[in-house]
Amino acid sequence: xxxxxxxxxxxxxxxxxxxxxxxxxxxxxxxxxxxxxxxxxxxxxxxxxxxxxxxxxxxxxxxxxxxxxxxxxxxxxxxxxxxxxxxxxxxxxxxxxxxxxxxxxxxxxxxxxxxxxxxxxxxxxxxxxxxxxxxxxxxxxxxxxxxxxxxxxxxxxxxx
Length: 160
Known about the structure:
The relative contact order is 0.19. The chain has one domain. The strands form two sheets. The protein has a four-stranded antiparallel β-sheet. The protein has a two-stranded antiparallel sheet with strand order 2-3. It contains three helices and six strands. The radius of gyration is 18 Å and the shape is elongated. It has helices at 53-61, 77-103, 115-120, and strands spanning 2-4, 12-13, 18-19, 23-30, 33-43, 156-158. The protein is an alpha+beta fold.
């Protein structure tokens, strides 16, 4: 499998203590069938300039946020809520970005391709399709479908 993804937009700016984005979209191709391509969303907990005000306020309060060690498991209500709000914000942005990305590939879309995005929609994350996107019809049980397309720009990672 070959993976093309560029995570550099997610790097932390040491001056602002913010990341340019909390997600990126890449592509993968199967070596035994290069015409079969899929899309990959990589998201991480990162404070961006557009984060909700309560997340930004908590980040000012706690300089380690959102990179608290997983060895520390004692979260008070304020820190728990900050991580919850950041996770919700990140997941919503990543799902919306994938919807927009898939919408820009209509001539390459195979039947059933939007199901992964539709499955990611939950009422707590907006629950509505992105502007201009119609709700996807569910795929038949037991089916798995991918997308066809051209190679993507960006870094390259190959796996055996």
